[in-house]
Specification:
Blueprint: H1 2-12, H2 14-21, H3 27-67, H4 85-109, H5 118-154, H6 156-159, H7 176-189, H8 193-221
Length: 226
């Protein structure tokens, strides 16, 4: 990370960094401090993952067995980071690089410019790299991170028009679990409140019915003890 931050600092130039960002601190020193801060944050994430695995999940299972039998804990993507640390770095760098290229493409096309967010490209890009690596090796990691980056870079262009007055703040979030449902819900909302509420209720009904069907299949696979 120090290499990345120092290269970016050199490309940006000392004048801007020392006058706008670092408060007079040398731009190289400032970039190294920021790299260390990022690395420390990553360590905190990994330690948090280990804490979840070691303490929170067993506690959740104890409650779940009584309240929601056969339930499974849903955990955020950092839970898989320790399994493929090299894929994490590949996924992050590739996703951020493609996001930067997408930004320049938007500038050239004259569209709204989506600046690549480090957090979104790190968490989602790393996860995409890990899953791609598990099925396609290094090539899979690169392709997975590239596809993720294209999604979180270009989908915000489609959600901005449906944000109403929030669009004035140019507010968006670089996660597909926000962007894809947001676009669908926004399109439904354009047809009126009744259509929007009906769409949400139909979606909930589909989720409940799907859950019932899947649970029934799981129960049918259980062989009763003799």
């Amino acid at each position: 990370m120090s290499v990345v931050y120092v290269i970016l600092a050199i490309a940006t130039g000392p004048n801007y960094i020392e006058s706008k960002l670092s408060g007079g601190t040398n731009y190289i020193v400032y970039s190294i401090i920021q790299a260390g801060t990022f690395a420390a944050g990553f360590v905190v994430v990994l330690q948090g993952v280990r804490m979840i695995l070691g303490e929170i999940v067993p506690a959740f299972q104890g409650i779940a067995k009584k309240l929601v039998p056969n339930s499974k804990p849903a955990l955020d993507v950092p839970i898989i980071f320790p399994y493929a640390p090299n894929a994490v770095l590949i996924g992050f760098f590739v996703s951020f690089f493609v996001g930067t290229l997408s930004m320049f493409a938007m500038i050239a096309l004259g569209t709204t410019v989506i600046i690549p967010g480090v957090v979104g490209h790190f968490f989602c890009g790393a996860a995409s790299g890990i899953y791609g690596n598990s099925t396609g090796g290094r090539r899979g990691a690169v392709l997975g991170a590239t596809f993720n980056s294209l999604l979180i870079s270009w989908l915000p262009l489609f959600i901005l028009p449906v944000l109403g007055t929030l669009k004035l703040a140019a507010s968006t979030f670089a996660d597909t679990d926000y962007l894809i449902p947001g676009i669908l819900v926004g399109k439904l909302g354009s047809y009126g409140a009744i259509t929007l509420v009906s769409g949400i209720l139909i979606f909930l009904l589909v989720v409940v019915l799907t859950s019932i069907v899947l649970n029934a299949k799981d129960r049918s696979k259980v062989v009763p003890a003799k």
